[in-house]
User: Fold this.
Amino acid sequence: MITIIKNGIRKIFHICAVFLARFALVSKIAQRIADYRRGNNNPDMSTNGELDFFKKHAAGFRVAFDVGANKGDWTREALKINPKLDIFAFEPDPAMCAEFKANSFPKNVVCENLGLGSKKEKRTLYIHKESSGMNSFVKRSLFKDNELAPREVEITTVDIYCAGHRIDKID
Assistant:
């Protein structure tokens, strides 16, 4: 009798585990679809609404910050819309910053090998070894430890940077 009860409990736990696993997968898929539709967690500026917003409003912009500039894709698109825009790009990963600078942007574009944050400090940046643009100050669980290279990087604040570079307004 005890064996029958134990086997029954095992079957119930197995069914629950399968159900929860399927529910978690469905939940993740639904969240990704919702994020995509809302433009959340979508880095593609042509589909997340960012490019549309910029096209409508950027003609009169003077100064913009590209935070987490990566290789310079956003800066390139912004210059197509407003070539006179002064862009201050911030990329804390030295390799990505070098790739950005290799683009030979015009003189109205400056790329700083810095991150921006709420205070001036050094922080650990988890650099994905494929240089995929997936670098983060948060250690992402979707990557294995051997795929990430932690590196201490400099962080400054918008206020400190603007004061030091005589920037009085960011559009």
